[in-house]
């Protein structure tokens, strides 16, 4: 039976939400009076879904969403919003809440939204279980010299690495920074051959030259190849441009106080800091970035067996 | 053209508030160059005593953002104005520290704290 945890400091609202769910299906209901109580209930009676108010004493709905997304990423959370809580609701959705239903529309919309979110969560769980069994994934992208695709390919690889559980949420951001720096270097410094020293002299001239070359031969015909091989132990990404290459050792140390105001070398510094290994080929037009899995991450699958519990509406 | 895709600029007294609206990863969008220029023009026109850059909506950024901040700082220094940052994520702080820019620009936990500091 589907277990739903209803969290609200108002006993009346808890009863209304619970009654509406019972009317529409076979639900096992658990109740909590605020976020702190909810986390205890989640610990005791792992729910399939959490339905929560936003404004509560002790721990509010936003904090609850953050805690659940951190510790129980596969449990979907639906918000019950009231007038005046719109801003917090937007924040909670950004933090990972699955959906929301205005309290004044509970009778009309709650059952349908719960149904929809449970269905999506079931698919997500299945997908996560499948991904846990994936052993190797290989990708090759050939990007025409179009900078607008950079963000998309980085996002794709970030998600792929996270799905393979190669990185935590924070590491995912770091990996994204490193990959983006590498691809953007391939675009500007590799294929378009615009140098950081021009940016040092006149940053507008640097961008103007880049725009012009993006329309001119031979630069515009060049492409960037992004190859990634992800296994359960590491992600290896190779980024190659079609420019003449460069000598990475020629870059100044951006951490040297002398160079603090120079616009060179920071991208490579970020790559080297956020990946476990970064190396260039001899020509200097291909960089290999390696991210190794460090520690066991948050369990992707929670235990199935739960202790018995008592509902306290 | 949407002029505030990356930067939302507001003026509060003699302080310019610059809210970042989305990750400015690297040079992933040519529009950012134009927006940096607009920001510099506003600095020149408003001659603020300080600029507060608010990273609340941005979980990370790359060398492009660092470069934009450096260019902004150079312009502010010419006017004798201050640059401070607020609501920087953990990864964002790490990036600023790596580039040693945390030694140049104070970082505050909130917009209110940043405003209070520049108005002291």
Structure in words:
The complex is a heterodimer of chains A (313) and B (120). With 313 residues, chain A is an alpha/beta fold. In chain A, 42% of the residues lie in helices and 20% in strands. Chain A has 10 helices and 10 strands. In chain A, helix 3 (61-71) links the parallel strand 3 (49-53) and strand 4. In chain A, helix 1 (11-24) crosses helix 5 (106-131) and helix 3 (61-71) packs parallel to helix 4 (86-94). The longest helix of chain A is centred in the middle third of the chain and has 26 residues, at 106-131. With 120 residues, chain B is α/β, with parallel strands linked by helices. Chain B contains 4 helices and 5 strands. Chain B has helices at residues 31-46, 63-79, 90-98, 111-119, and strands spanning 7-12, 15-20, 50-54, 82-86, 107-108. In chain B, strands 1-2-3-4-5 form a 5-stranded mixed sheet. In chain B, strand 3 (50-54), helix 2 and strand 4 (82-86) form a beta-alpha-beta unit. The longest helix of chain B is centred in the middle third of the chain and has 17 residues, at 63-79. The mean pLDDT of chain B is 86. Classes of the chains: A alpha/beta (313), B alpha/beta (120). The interface between A and B is medium-sized, with 33 and 29 residues.
Which tags fit this structure?
heterodimer; A: 313 residues; alpha/beta; five-stranded parallel beta sheet; five-stranded antiparallel beta sheet; disordered C terminus; B: 120 residues; five-stranded mixed beta sheet; 4 helices; 20% strand; globular
What would you say about this model in short?
The complex is a heterodimer of chains A (313) and B (120). With 313 residues, chain A is of the alpha/beta class.
Helix-strand category of chain B: alpha/beta
Chain pair forming the biggest interface: A-B, 33 and 29 residues
Please give the alpha-carbon distance between the first and last residues of chain B. 38 Å
- Fraction in beta strands of chain A: 15-25%
How many helices of chain B? The count is 4
**Total helix count of chain A?**
10
Helix-and-strand structural type of chain A: alpha/beta
Gross geometry of chain B:
globular
Question: From the structure provided, what is the oligomeric state, counting identical versus distinct chains?
Answer: heterodimer
Query: Whole-number radius of gyration of chain B?
Result: 13 Å
Portion of residues within helices of chain A: 40-55%
The N- and C-terminal alpha carbons of chain A lie at a distance of 18 Å
The major beta sheet of chain B can be summarized as:
5 strands, mixed
| Mean pLDDT over the residues of chain B | 86
Q: Percentage of helical residues of chain B?
A: 40-55%
Query: Shape of chain A from CA axes?
Result: elongated
């Amino acid at each position: 039976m589907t277990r739903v945890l209803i969290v609200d400091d108002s006993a009346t609202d808890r009863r209304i939400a619970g009654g509406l769910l019972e009317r529409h299906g076979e639900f096992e209901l658990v109740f909590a009076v605020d976020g702190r109580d909810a986390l205890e209930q989640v610990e005791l009676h792992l729910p399939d879904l959490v339905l929560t108010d936003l404004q509560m004493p002790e721990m509010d709905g936003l904090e609850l969403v953050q805690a659940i997304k951190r510790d129980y990423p596969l449990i979907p959370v639906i918000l019950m919003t009231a007038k005046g809580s719109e801003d917090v609701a937007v924040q909670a959705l950004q933090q990972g809440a699955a959906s929301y239903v205005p309290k004044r529309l509970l009778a009309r919309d709650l059952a349908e939204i719960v149904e929809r979110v449970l269905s999506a969560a079931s698919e997500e769980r299945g997908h996560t279980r499948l991904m846990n069994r994936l052993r190797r994934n290989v990708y090759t992208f050939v990007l025409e010299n179009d900078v607008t695709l950079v963000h998309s390919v980085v996002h794709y690889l970030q998600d792929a690495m996270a799905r393979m559980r190669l990185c935590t949420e924070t590491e995912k951001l770091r990996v994204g920074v490193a990959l983006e720096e590498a691809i953007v270097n391939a675009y500007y410094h590799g294929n378009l051959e615009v140098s950081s020293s021009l940016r040092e002299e006149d940053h507008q001239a640097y961008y103007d030259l880049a725009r012009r070359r993006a329309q001119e031969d031979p630069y515009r015909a060049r492409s960037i190849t992004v190859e990634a091989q992800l296994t359960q132990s590491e992600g290896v990404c190779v980024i190659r441009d079609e420019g003449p290459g460069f000598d990475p050792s020629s870059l100044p140390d951006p951490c040297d106080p002398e160079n603090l105001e120079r616009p060179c070398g920071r991208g490579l510094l970020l790559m080297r800091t956020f990946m476990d290994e970064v190396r260039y080929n001899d020509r200097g037009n291909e960089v290999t970035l390696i991210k190794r899995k460090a520690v066991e991450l948050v369990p992707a699958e929670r235990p199935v067996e739960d202790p018995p519990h008592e509902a306290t509406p | 053209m949407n002029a505030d895709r990356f930067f939302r600029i507001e003026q509060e007294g003699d302080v310019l508030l610059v809210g970042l609206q989305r990750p400015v990863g690297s040079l992933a969008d040519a529009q950012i160059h134009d927006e940096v220029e607009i920001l510099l023009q506003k600095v020149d026109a408003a001659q603020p005593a300080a600029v507060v850059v608010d990273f609340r909506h941005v979980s990370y950024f790359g060398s492009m953002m660092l470069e934009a901040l450096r260019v902004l700082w150079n312009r502010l220094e010419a006017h004798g104005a201050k640059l401070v940052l607020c609501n920087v994520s953990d990864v964002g702080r790490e990036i600023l520290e790596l580039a040693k820019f945390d030694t140049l620009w104070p970082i505050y936990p909130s917009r209110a704290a940043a405003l209070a500091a520049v108005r002291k």
